[in-house]
TrEMBL record, chain A:
Its main location: Golgi. Residues 466-475 have a biased composition (Basic residues). This is Glycosyltransferases. Coiled coil: none annotated.
UniProtKB/TrEMBL annotation, chain B:
The keyword Signal applies. Residues 1-26 form the signal peptide. This is Exostosin GT47 domain-containing protein. It holds the Pfam family Exostosin_GT47. InterPro entries: Exostosin, Exostosin_GT47. Residues 50-345 form the Exostosin GT47 domain. Its main location: Golgi. Belongs to the glycosyltransferase 47 family.
Amino acid sequence: MKLLSAFRSSYLNRRGSTFRSLDPSSFDGGLIPKPSPSSIFWLAIHCLCCLISLILGFRFSHLVLFFLFSTSVTNLYTTTAGVSQLLQLKPLEKANVTAKSSRVVVGRHGIRIRPWPHPNPIEVMRAHQLLERVQKEQKSLYGVRSPRAVIAVTPTYVRTFQALHLTGVMHSLMLVPYDVVWIVVEAGGKSNETASFVGKSRLKTIHVGFDQKMPNTWEDRGKLESKMRIQALRIVREEKLDGIVVFVDDSNMHSMELFDEIQNVRWFGALSVGILAHSGNADELSSVLKTNQEGKPLSMPIQGPSCDSSGKLVGWHVFNTQPYATKTAVYVDDKAAVMPSKMEWSGFVLNSRLLWKESAVDRPAWVKDVNNLLDGNEEIEDGPLSMVKDPSMVETLGSCGRNVLLWWLRVEARADSNFPPGWIIKSPLDITVPSERTPWPDSSSKLPVVTNEEKNNQPATEKRSGKPRGSKSKNNRGTQEPKTTRSRK
Amino acid sequence: PAPPTMTNRSSLSAILLFLFFSASSAQHNVRTERISGSAGDVLEDNPVGKLKVYVYELPSKYNKKLLQKDPRCLTHMFAAEIFMHRFLLSSPVRTLNPDEADWFYSPIYPTCDLTPTGLPLPFKSPRMMRSAIQLISSNWPYWNKTEGADHFFVVPHDFGACFHYQEEKAIERGILPLLKRATLVQTFGQRNHVCLDQGSITIPPFAPPQKMQAHLIPPDVPRSIFVYFRGLFYDVNNDPEGGYYARGARAAVWENFKNNPLFDISTDHPTTYYEDMQRSIFCLCPLGWAPWSPRLVEAVVFGCIPVIIADDIVLPFADAIPWEEIGVFVAEKDVPELDTILTSIPTEVILRKQRLLANPSMKQAMLFPQPAQPGDAFHQILNGLARKLPHDGSVYLKAGEKVLNWTAGPVGDLKPW
């Protein structure tokens, strides 16, 4: 369908019709060889038309031809100069092109431009509604067939980093496109801080307190968290919640694909968790790597199901704690790496119907009857896998654990770290670094006395020096900073 | 609208309403819908047993030698002529006995004379056709029996058997006089046009099926582009002023909608072209120098509703596929209102079009897969030929009767090839 330009130009030159030679492209292409009277006449007409076109701003010559010649086809012309003139014009072609009565004519046609070629906001709205409807249809046809509610179980307690962790969890759950029930179990009883997060989430939530306080060692904390999760499962049983139970630990990070993938679970599923056992100390990590370099490749920081080539579950991949053997954190605020337990709860999801009391629910045989566990008669020892009789029957999610859908992380602040309750500061903060650029004339009356003296000293010295002001203030800052860091350490 | 008086009537209407809603909601969960055109539900017909095709043995200068000279003929959009030959050679409809054949096929590749840049030159094609028909009529008696009325030829070039790439020239030449009685299988189709004979079968242009399959994305990726188009709006080499190329329609699309965020249109050649089509609701298929384009095939394969801007166009297999229900037709004069037209289509209509496009037999009918698969374009061509059977008795000429004018046409065509 593409034409060769050579053929095209030769074709144009061969066209001998008189008014075609008025076409500027061919006119510019070459001079008329013999100035015959008719051609001079046409030349004069063309110049006149060009002048008039310049003034008017559109192709006036075609109007003349319209009045002189008439063919059977009409065309619309609009200008690109912004003047919206709709003219009825005829094309410049011979009309005897086709013997059949065709409305469609070969040749030069006008380029139709409407007067205001910009989008109409109502139509844009309508287009977006159409897009939404089409996407909804796509989702219903190709997405999850009958989406089930997501029951998120989160054990938490009030501490400095709780705001960081719970904000992340809250935002993740708010983005989930399915119904969510968020069960928050709090160690040390219900508190206002946690309640504010739970309230902000605009989800359906169940916030309960747990009587014990959170202990200070990671091991004990893990044990208590397991107990708190069992408490949440009891609530699921009592309220007869229907959906998929996910263990959303407050410091973990969840991807959105996780919530789509767990819709595929039938009874009890396992997925791969990325383990981020990092203390933030780069030296430590490199020493860990060095000890590991004796031939053995660094193992993946993943905990999850492991399948053979046919996709059958054959075992579990656990996090290799060996390289960290000497330097793991014991207390919650230790600076060493925090180790996960052998099987983290967050890597497992279960159908809430497993927890219901009725025997009418056709539980599969490979899952234990959890009522004993939930009634408090048993203790859970090795993590969630002890809820199944036959671990090889556990369903694998995320293409048999090859997709890591969430990350496990434990990071907490120092034991003595202080944070304002609810992160709302009741009285203004103390000045540690005074603002040196703008003199604040009124502030001296409001500040307490101690800082006032400092402030009075500072502006005086600064006003005296011109250029070295910058350096002096830098010096001031320099002397100030080590103080603050020292106090923090 | 519940009737007021009797409880019987109200319960009956409630039942009817419930049935209606359940029926309509049941339809909503259906992914595809059956396609039946004016010829009926014929997309999935099996042509085997309905017709017999005899393939002439022509010297290789008409087919194999051309392909050997330039293997690019196998990948450009006119490759249908070559693949049709290969398909017929091994198809069960082929018969080696010409006396029982319903249709006769001559394997000629008129579009295989390519320039260095890959464009086919149609200047020698009329002579090649003439020479081939002379050969056929002198070596076999079947041409003279009907003067070609039970013969078919594949002519996939721009304007079919008019053998020219420029429309005015093509119209001047008209269909090659010797092919006036034969059935033409061509990609060009426009109503009331010289180059479309009444009995012709329009086929889609060749688009490489493996390449398109390789770029499929999962169907749950949401369609977030409203209108999509990639291609030229102005052909600066051949039509610098504009208004000639595409009868000004493509230029109108650009000028009116270049600032419209709903229209993702540009002249880029992105590597994600196929993927982007699968993320769009509407794909523009405007005319270019000729009304047909491979964009239609791509739009159908990728489930994007084709917006056809080509007045009087005849789309492939028009009797088997109800194109008005599948695509959106916009007159060239209505291009400035394209956004109004597209946004005013009711939601249900759009969803229905998408369901029709999702029908796998629809996608199959547009493709020329190697090897041939049931329901593909090869089979649709055979079905079309089968639907034209049985031949009308008047087609058969008495001995010695001549209808065709062997000396008609431009002088240059009469030279031997």
